[in-house]
Amino acid sequence: MMKSLLFLSILFSFQTIASVCWDQTTEEKTSIVKEIVASYQSEALGRLGQMIELRLSDTTDCRFIQAYGGHDKSGIPHVTFFPGLVREFSSDAVLFTLCHELGHLFGSVNPQSMGIATPYDPRDSIEGEADYFAGSCILNYLKDETLAFQAGKEALQKFMGPTIKMAPDKARKKKYKHGIDFDYPNPDCRLLTILNGIKGEERPKCWYNPKENR
Ligand SMILES: [Zn+2]
Fold first, then answer.
1. Distance from residue 130's CA to the centre of ligand 1 (Å)
2. Does the pTM of the predicted model rise above 0.85?
3. Contact 203, 196 (CB under 8 A)
4. 131: CA distance to ligand 1 center in Å?
5. For the chain, domain boundaries
6. 3 C-alpha vs ligand 1 centroid, how far in Å?
7. What is the Å distance from ligand 1's center to 78 Cα?
8. Which single residue of 21, 26, 161, 175 could bond 62 by disulfide (Cβ 3.0 to 4.6 Å)?
9. How many angstroms separate the CA atoms of 110 and 197, rounded?
10. What is the 104 CA–ligand 1 centroid distance (Å)?
11. Which residues pair with 55 in a beta bridge?
């Protein structure tokens, strides 16, 4: 009984969409996204107290590339995809993006855990942490460190241009509150964060220095 109830509520946690942008070109990728979100629902119930809503935007701008994850203004945890991202990105890069958005919900570095006020929901993990979570999350699905890193790099390149590359890790000059950069880290720092997430290594200093400024 519990199982069928849970199954029904998982079904209804997907928003119905009417946009023409979601067609046969997006079908396969969105079905993988749905499966993965469904696989996180029991963890969502346990850790967030409610299930994640997967939202597929009803925009008719089929080229609009964006995705969001976190708690909305009503406190509902969601992952939202716009059709351009799913159409333009490879399956692996869509998967990486999903892992990043889930990282905003399931990562452990967030303003609440540090007692810091933010304009957005303080339960949502910051960008660096979303990338770090995404590294371990995507490795779970792709099972190969090189493929997992490529997926992350491809997704970042789509947003930040093709020339991003790695650089040695060091704390940045920018003054971070509590030693942590709450904004998007630089592209090279994001790549390193993804790699460290994949390899299970520590969060890089380029955004995470919690002992600094204390
Ligand atoms: Zn993000």
1. 6
2. yes
3. yes
4. 8
5. 22-199
6. 32
7. 12
8. 21
9. 17
10. 7
11. 80
- Give the tens place of pLDDT for each residue, 52-100: 999 999 999 999 999 999 999 999 999 999 999 999 999 999 999 999 9
b/e per residue, 88-114, with b = 16+ CB within 10 A?
ebeebbbbbbbbbbbbbbbbebbbeee
> Residue 60 C-alpha to ligand 1 middle, in angstroms?
23
pLDDT value at residue 16 = 56
pLDDT digits (tens, 9 = 90+) for 16-54: 566 899 999 999 999 999 999 999 999 999 999 999 999
Measure 24 CA to ligand 1 centroid, in angstroms.
Answer: 27
* E strand segments, the chain: 53-56, 67-71, 77-81
CA torsion angle 3 28 132 169 (round to 10): 170
